[in-house]
Amino acid sequence: MSFQSQEQVETLTILENRLKSLSFQYKEPINEIQIFKQFISDKDEEFAIWKNAESQVKSVCGKDIKNGELTFQCFTCAPDPFHMYCYQCFDPDVHINHKCIIKHKIGGACDCGDEQTIIPSGFCSKHQGISKFDYNQELKKISEPLKQKIENFIRALSSVYLQLTKKIKSDYHKFNLKILKLYHISEKLLIIPLKETIDSEYDIEDYYKIFQQAIYLNSILFKMCYWLTESRLCFIILLSQIFQQQLTQESKQSIFEDLFEVQVLIESQGPQPALIIESLLFRFYADYSFKQFIQVCYIKKYQSMWLLTRQKVTRYDNQIDETLIQLQEISNSKFVRLQNEQLLQMVENIKMYIKSYKSSQYNLQRFYLSEIHEQHTQYVAEQLQELFLNNQNISIVYNYIRDLQDIIHSHNPLQSFKQLSYSMVFKLRYDYSFFHKMGFKQLNQALAKQQLQFYSEEITKEIIQNFKYQDFTITAFIDCFNRIKPQHLNIVDENLIIRQYDLQDAIYFLICQCQAIEVIKTGLLKLFDSQSATPLFKENITKLMLIQCYSILKKKSKCISIDMQLHEAYKKYIEVKDLSEKEIFQRLSKIYLLLIKSITVIERLFTFFLSQLYCLKNFSSGKDFESYILNVLEEDKKELKIIFYEVLSKCLQVYTSIYFCQNKILEQIYQGLSDQNELVILESYDSSFLKFYLFIYENEGFNDLFQIIKNRKIPIESDMNRLLCCLLLRMLSSDLDLYNVCCSTSQNLHKDLKLSLAKSIQNFYNLSTYLQYTDIENKLKRMGIISCSYLPDHILEICEVDQAVKKLKLKPDYKIIYDPAIFNISNSTNNQIVEKLIEQNKSEKEIHLGNGIEWDVELFSQTNFRTILYHLLKEYCKREYIQKNIHLLATEGFALIQTYQLLYIQIIAANYFRTQEFIVDVPSILDQFEQIQKKKERKDDIQRIQVLISEINKITTVVQKFTEKSQNQVKNNLQNKKNQFKDKYNKLQKSEFLQDMLDSNNIKENNEDTYDKVCSSCRLPLSQQNSVALLLLIKKPQTSNFSIISKESLDYFKNQQFNLIDIGIADCKHYFHQTCLTEGFQADQKNRRQNAPNWVKIGCPVCKLPCTLTLPIQIQLTNFDVETFNSDLQLFVSENFNESLFENQITALVTLTQTYYNIFFDLLVSLLQNLPEYIRNKKSIVFNQLLMILKQTNIEAARMQIKEKFQFQTKNNLILKILCLIQKYVVLDKDLERLKRKIIKCCIQYNIKNDIKAQLELSFDIKDEISQQIQESLQKTLIQNIPYQFTIINQQQLIEELKCIIGLTFKEFYCKYFTKKCFACGFYNKDQRYRGFSMCLFCSKTFCIYSCKKNLQTGNFNQHANNEHNGISIYINLENGYVTLLCSPISIQKYKCLFYNQLGQTMDVQNSHADWNTYCLDIEKVKELSQIILNNSYQATIRNLEVRQNQLDMDGWL
User: Fold this and answer.
1) Tens digits of per-residue pLDDT, 748-764?
2) Whether CATH 2.10.110.30 fits 64-132
3) Cα separation, 983 vs 972, whole angstroms
């Protein structure tokens, strides 16, 4: 804007004065139209310009999405994991075969139309991206006068607003924020006593009014901008241009930057919340150039987003906080009902608070952070990331992080957690998949001419000296921690006690360190995962950063040491004072807590890079490793030792401080047992550095360790010894600490780390032979072990999936062991294992001491096996250290289980490393143990010492016999296993299961008379009368995706004349007396819901098969038996099909006959498809009995109609041939003998296999001798063989069809069906309380789970199944691949899962890290589904399933 016009200056001045007047009306609501006409333009034609500028097609959506709204993501169109589509912009037709998901419980802005986030082909029709629009053409939609008026309005309003904020900025530190908020409430609710009290005690009224004016103008500015730009790209462009201009000629920055600078002040220090401008910024992002501008502003004004305040502390703080909450939650009407006494008490409390506040001398620091800081998640596009990391002003961000570190490490506690946010800005950027491109680009720039040498040769001194650390983002971030220096402790006497805010400050300090380290590890991981990352590159980059950290540590070494800090503080605050034991403890605790801040991120990173180098190379000894480090750092031994000693002292100080202060949350953060830590566990860093120190310096290292612990000045020696024992045991039992440090950047584990992880997992298998991946992961987490992205790969190096149970089992190379020493911080898992061992009658030694160290020693024979542990144990098993721990046991009152475990480790190690010397020491050791045992009073102590004595005796007396004994033991174990298998086989031979198998392979069974069988309930013989079998008839579901009948033959079975495939039958092999069955039904009814379908309420008392009718099975059938069964059959058909089928006698008989044909068809299909099942359930008896009933059924009245209706085309079709024979010789001619002869002839003609032929003979009651006679007579006749077709698909064919329908991977399945939308609502359920989406296996239609239409109690699944599939269906969930079985109204969710990865895990689409292609279709589960389909066992499966309540829906809600 030009400022030369005097007229324009006067116009602005007038407008500013009017807006100042408006600001005094801050209690009035804001009306945008009124403000437009009053302050911008009162001309109707200019208002019409704004009104008519609304466009249906916009550049970018930018819709503000609230948490819980229906949103989508498409990773095919947008790789950024944080992108989002609102439901109006997500068009499934645009995303066919894409990787799309419904995103739950997340808010933000819709990115549709943002070309930097989503590719243009992924845009909806309403948003076409900014490149589709011409800025100049858009701006021409607004007249020049209106543009000028809007610009004047924004300038004037911003000017007045900034004048007010300038006053606030100079005074805010003088006023108490809590009192300001109380004053606002008193004004708002007209609480006169409260207002008068504050006015009399605290002069705040003028400041309050200025702040209210500023907030009011702030709201007007942003609300007007939001109103002006609603669906109007031209106004978005105009306003974005205005905000990028300077406010005055003298200004050195834009209007937006001016506003940016004061936003945190308005948001955090006001009497009421300021307007959140997030939605407005989302809208402005439609102008990509403005988005880039804001990104630059974000960098240049990074410091302006932070506000550090000092607040006085009083003893009434918590009370006033509660009063504020109470007052903020009530309205005027509620306040009126407050009793006068309550009001007076509240006023009195506030008066006391003000008085206490004025006299308080103690201040706390607190960070406030602008909401704009969270906008960094919006700058995710690759170009914006590059703009951020390569911006010339990025040093401003780094410098402020340095300032933050000074504040965070100061001894004045921070009463906030906002300081955690700075590292997330970088972690987010490093975590993007494309970061490695920018990372390598920056690295190459920092290397300059030496980049080729860096990738192809070992790093040299020249490369290090010339490397531009500030040009490479990771090293620049590390350099942010280079300024922190140790401080002398200076504490006021009254503060020499730990308060709640001290603990909070320490907790946030540790979390802050974890997050900073995680940033570096995340960036390195992205570089290491790229194709350019060779082993040499990894080593060089690690060396480079190790050298960087070491140079910083070397500078810091000239400052005060940690030992001197502690010594000074101890002398100043404890030693020269006359204190009680309690006071000493309190003061020392406070000193320890403050000294936690003595260690910086640099010491942790130094440990990390040391660990990385150790794992990248192979070292045979500590001296080799030391030589390697000295060579890398170009340092002499003495100087390196000084630095190492100081770092170790700091690590051990933190370790001591954490455990001495005894705060559970602090311990959890440190040990990695809190949800706060993802990739960093600080205790592991301290323990790993100690491990390297002892590895390098051996005996000298152990002496330094003991001295450093002694220098901590722990007042009670036994406490010091306990701490030392726990530390040594955790370090010597495994290398899990080193695993925690290195695992997140190492896909292929170093052997030491692999075996340490294996040792933990081997322990878990004491609980079960098979474990799910999540079980192992959770147990590891409870042990303080990191669950990194590579954990699945690491576990699969140790375990393998058992395909039968889809769970993990140990690989043969690993055996189950128990080592209690590794469970120091995971008592729950350890207790479970101990209970199992007790159940298994394990020895006291195995329960108390385990066999973990024996496993370690057994593997020491391998070359370079666990090198560090090997050398540490070799050193620590020396006589002097064993005696040290024995002396601890002898100390009165010292009974730490870790000491016993530590001694056991030393004994086993001593026997391995210095056998002869140890044997000489044994008598003395045993004598000392016996003396200690006599003095101990606790039973556990006596027992543990006895176990140690027994173990020493064993290993010293059986050394020579060990090998022979081991060999004999192996032989005995093998023999025992053989005997177990024999016993198991003998039992199996006698079992019903094996007998059934033998029966299924038997070609012919004798058809025993019914009365020789026994009742399955009372076990008494079945009588000639009133004996029944149970039948389940179902109306088969109609399926369009597949059919058990081949497509070529379908018309033969289902046509305009008849339908033979609608009814299915299932039976079981249990038979009953009618009275026994009735009693069984009555007993079962008590456990069944009365409103459930009959097939649920009535079923076989033995196998629980649902029942719809009973079949008389006696040989002599009475007319009553036949009529009753036919009546039940007709009732089933009329209930499930059409009642009109029985409107007259003729129609009823024809329908009854067709029903029989349906049942015979289904039985024949079962015979041909699944012969073992046919035999096992003795369907031949059912077939024959139905044949007898049909023969005795009088259908004479409908004879002609039946003959005319059922004219089967029998050519090459065995099933139709048999049905034709049944019609002719059973229904019409009633000649069973001729039927039998024809059946045998049919078997010969069609060349039927003997096993099927045998069952056909049983089904038609053809005795062996009769069959033989018929065959002999037929041999005299020339019979022409007919090639037949089964016309039905077998199970394998059905499995292949299902595989094609579903897809072989989850990605194929999901992409095929997700974009089909719900066939009920045409989209996806907007009510995300009822989330979920599934496809119907029978027809491939997709549906929202539950009902997506209002006022419908019946769910989509039930409605669809009833409308199209006769009330039965199978659905597959698109979120996880789980199957839902449904027989309306009952459904079982999560019946089976169809997709598993190599870990046996099921799919969850909400997991953004999951590779959908690795979740493969489980063919065994598909086979089980095919079995249900072929056997029509939907209802039987549901009725017999034992499921959790949340899986079962009895009321049709699905």
Assistant:
1) 888 889 999 999 999 99
2) yes
3) 16
